[in-house]
Structure formats: C-alpha cells, structure tokens
Amino acid sequence: MKPFRPGIVPTLVVLALLPGLIALGCWQLRRADEKRHLLDTYAERRIQAPVAVAQLQQLPDPAFQHVQLHGRFDAEHSLLLDNRLRDGQVGVELLQPFHDQASGQWLLVNRGWLPWPDRRVPVRFDTPQQPLSLDASVYVAPGSTFQLHPDPAGGQWPHLLTAVEPAQLWQQLGRDGFAHELRLEPGPASYRLDWPVVAMGPEKHLGYAVQWFALAAALVLLYLYFGWHNNKENHHGRRHESTGRA
Asked: pLDDT (tens digit, 9 = 90+) per residue, 129-171?
C-alpha cells in the first residue's frame, strides 16, 4: 500500500480551515431550524385569539402573539427606523409610544412603512389624537439589537435610528413599558404593513450550509489528492536519481 505523504504545509492549511468550514455549515443548519420554528410559531399564533395587554408580561414567549389595544398614541416621541426598503424604494418605519388605558402600560407600536425619497424634506405622517382600539402582534427581534442612543441632531424628535430596543426607550422616557415592539394590523392608524415573517427563509440557510459543507469536502479531497500525488512524484524522483547514479 502506497504511503500517504501530504506535506506539512497542506496539513496545517487543512487543520486551520476544515473546522471552520464545518462549524459554519452546522451554524447555518441551526439557523434553518430556528427559522422553521419561527414560521411554525407564526402560523400557530395567527389563528389564536388575541390577548389583553395585561397578559403579555406573563407569556414566556410572546413572539407573534396577537394583542388588543385601547388607548392613545404619544405624538411627541416618535421613532423613525431608517433604511427600510419596499419595492426598491427607500423609506422608514414609524414607531410611536402607545398608552394602553386598560393596563396603564406603554407599548412601542410600529405603524408601518413610509417612503422618504428626498432626505432634505422631513418625513410626513399624522398621529391620531383620539382614543383608538387597535389590533397588533408582538415582534421579538432575532438576536441582540442595537441600543437606543440620543439623536445626533441635538435630541430633537422624531429620532432617526437604524434599530431600537424598546426597554431603552422606556428608560430614557422614565416610563413603565413592554420590552418588545408591537406591529399594527391593518386599520385606521396603519401605514404600509407588509413585513416578512423572517428576513431569510430556512431554505436559504440550507443552501448556505450545503455550500460550506461542499467547500469542506473539496478541501479534504484536495488534501488527499496532493498527499498521494506528492508521494508519486517523490517516488519517481528517487527512481530517476538512482538510474542516473547507475
């Protein structure tokens, strides 16, 4: 049986790269499982009856839970989430504090997407002044979110942000509020609402996992090929050297 002699450098390269490639493939498989779980939870809770705001704090996993609200918006402390695209058009999502009268709790409600084609002109939106009865669902951001920082334009409202954590907003305003964003259902206070359930479906993560595992397999095959090929070249080199001396 021919000896396997890949060399030190190829061996070090494989030892350095192979665990990382396998780890990335396994991570994508876990992400696919997480996305499938989110989609299953979404489908299940779409058909459940809505709950009152007072019940939200008792739920161990409030993601996608339907909620009935009754109260008023706070028009003075609006947030604009920047760089939100719809059909290739740039815009923002409008979030405003909402005071639920039945529970006395504050909630951060996402009213939907607004176009913002000209940055020189402020985003235009209206805030209902009268009490409203609204339907919404809880949105739990995947992973960690950015912290809420003071607006760079001197603290003037509305704040323009790229991401927000509601708990930080309530701390800034000195209010008792729910720790997750609520997204409105279609109604009198909503703008454009077509949010995807997940930004990337499980099939995309599976595709990426296949790519990482394929790279790992290609690396191993190249390692084996060069191991046998180098041994063959060394064998022929020694044979020609022996012939020349003879």
From this structure: 999 999 999 988 765 544 444 444 446 889 998 888 888 899 8
Cβ neighbours for 181, distance < 8 A, ≥ 6 positions apart: 95, 108, 109, 110, 138, 139, 141, 164, 166
- Residues 56-60: contacts with CB under 8 Å, at least 24 apart: 56/138, 56/178, 57/178
Query: Residue 10 is encoded by which pair of tokens?
Result: 């190829």
- 107-127 pLDDT per residue, tens: 999 999 999 988 889 999 999
Quote the crossing angle between the two packed helices 8-46 and 202-245, to the nearest 10°. Answer: 170
Distance CA 240, CA 246 (A): 10
Contact assessment for residue 10 and residue 227, using Cβ atoms and an 8 Å cutoff: yes
Token pair for 186: 């279609």
pTM of the model: 0.70
